[in-house]
Amino acid sequence: MIECLTGKIVHTERETVTIEVGNIGYLVYCANPFVFPLQKTTTIYTYQYVREDAIRLYGFSSRKERQLFEQLLQVSGIGPKGALAILASGSPLQVAKAIENEDEKFLTKFPGVGKKTARQMILDLKGKLMEALQAPSPDDIPAFEQVVEEENHVLEEALEALRALGYSEKEINKVKPKLQQENLEAEEYVKKALQWMLS
């Protein structure tokens, strides 16, 4: 298994990044591809998924994010696509807390997670996540819980504009995961955020 890749991000799309390592470009599926800055040397922690008709690399900004992905794959009804959608919509620690607190309402907000799957997540994973996810690890700074403003200055500029307009951190945090999936100019980020806040 490829534990991690360190190289330059040469291309980004909605679901993938291409990271060049030793003149070889690896296509890696990610929850939030735009977390990884273009044309900068980056380390992506990987999970190799193999089945009869596909071999794919899934990439994560920290080992803990990858660990949660692997745990989610063990839940009946959740495949790689569903696990990535959960990671894209919430931080690993938020998801772990929801499972520990048996917060089905929170879990069913994720794409493709109904009540049955939320209950299965709680049954399978409660008691298995919090200790490991809260333990400090060098690769988690700043990638695990810290927001990616340092790597996405345009998004930070948009968030500052929303604060200047009077929106609270709570309101901003609700739309931030969605914004992190986009690759826009600051003005467009603000427009998108306002649309979601007002809808």
UniProtKB/TrEMBL annotation:
Keywords for the protein's UniProt record, in alphabetical order: Cytoplasm, DNA damage, DNA recombination, DNA repair, DNA-binding, Hydrolase
Limits of the Helix-hairpin-helix DNA-binding motif class domain: 70-89, 105-124
Source taxon at top rank: Bacteria
Main localization, broad class: cytoplasm
Pfam families, sorted: HHH_5, RuvA_C, RuvA_N
Residue ranges that the Swiss-Prot or TrEMBL entry lists as coiled coil: none
SMART domains (alphabetical): HhH1
Compartment(s): Cytoplasm
Stored InterPro entries: DNA_helicase_Holl-junc_RuvA_I, Hlx-hairpin-Hlx_DNA-bd_motif, NA-bd_OB-fold, RuvA, RuvA_2-like, RuvA_C, RuvA_C_sf
SUPFAM superfamilies the record matches: DNA helicase RuvA subunit, C-terminal domain (SSF46929), Nucleic acid-binding proteins (SSF50249), RuvA domain 2-like (SSF47781)
GO MF terms held by the record: DNA helicase activity; hydrolase activity
Domain III as annotated region, ranges: 151-199
Role: The RuvA-RuvB-RuvC complex processes Holliday junction (HJ) DNA during genetic recombination and DNA repair, while the RuvA-RuvB complex plays an important role in the rescue of blocked DNA replication forks via replication fork reversal (RFR). RuvA specifically binds to HJ cruciform DNA, conferring on it an open structure. The RuvB hexamer acts as an ATP-dependent pump, pulling dsDNA into and through the RuvAB complex. HJ branch migration allows RuvC to scan DNA until it finds its consensus sequence, where it cleaves and resolves the cruciform DNA.
The family this protein is said to belong to: Belongs to the RuvA family.
Subunit and partners: Homotetramer. Forms an RuvA(8)-RuvB(12)-Holliday junction (HJ) complex. HJ DNA is sandwiched between 2 RuvA tetramers; dsDNA enters through RuvA and exits via RuvB. An RuvB hexamer assembles on each DNA strand where it exits the tetramer. Each RuvB hexamer is contacted by two RuvA subunits (via domain III) on 2 adjacent RuvB subunits; this complex drives branch migration. In the full resolvosome a probable DNA-RuvA(4)-RuvB(12)-RuvC(2) complex forms which resolves the HJ.
Protein name: Holliday junction branch migration complex subunit RuvA
Species per Swiss-Prot/TrEMBL record: Aliibacillus thermotolerans
Lineage, broadest ranks: Bacteria, Bacillati, Bacillota, Bacilli, Bacillales
Gene designation per UniProt: ruvA
